Amino acid sequence: MVYLKAQNKTSTLNEKHQAVNVKNGDIMAVANDRPVIIPPTTTIIDSIKTMAGNSSRRLIVADAGTKRLEAILTSTDIMSFLGGENSQLVEKHFKGNFLAAANAEVRNIMHENVTYLDRHASIEDAIKIMIKQNIGGVPIVDEKKCVCGICTEKDFLRVVAEVPANKSVDQYMSKRVKKAPSDTTIENAAKMMIENRIRRLPVIKDNILLGLVTASDMVEYLAEGHAFENIVTGNFHEAFNVPVSSLIKKDLVWASSDTDLGEAAKIMRNNDVSSLPVIDDGVLCGIITERDILRAISE
User: Fold this and answer.
1) Which of 53, 134, 200, 223 has the smallest C-beta neighbourhood within 10 Å, fewest atoms?
2) Domain 169-298 bears CATH identifier 3.10.580.10
């Protein structure tokens, strides 16, 4: 049986659990018991602000009074609203009026068929269901289906950081990597993510990797300054017609293919990133993500 020491989850986590039994431990040992919750009457534009303001990739949608779980909204859903299948909302229901669509209630794009777990579930239950459903987070509810937490890939990342896994990055990384030239517009980069069902995109210039851009980076961009002004005035295309390279704010951090998964998790945690490009001899050969590490934990 494997035990992993919890590292820097929250100020209260170490007080509650000094060690987490990965197979049979209580899900609330690693879950965030203060998730970001919005009511279904929240507007899409306000959900963008909330998501960015809380640096969250997903929002739980629940009844404002009872906190009873209704749905979940992710940064990918926001991208889909802007340029994917949900963008039909703008054309079909609001006759191309983007401003009106952005002020529609979030219930128009949220996922009501949401996977969730009871608060008495085990950590193993969470890992299994997240991998099976291919989701990055699962709400935790009580017997009345009222939200009491959320467990995400990032929570597991914090648990395994610095714990030697005796498994290398190259065993779990994605080797087929979709890349975007630095002058690709944010709009086209978003479409690439949606069409390829990916949440992150390496940005290159002259075959040199500049950094990774994620769906969350795009949501944060839309919630700030001039971009947000363009959104609220309906000038969506102007907001998105800038190079995707402008979204790169962090220094490039990476791992080599022989890096231990525990060390890779530590690098991600310390740099607050959800993935690492894998570089050998100066060449991008893959990406390792939180989900890949979650798969490794499950084995």
Assistant:
1) 134
2) yes
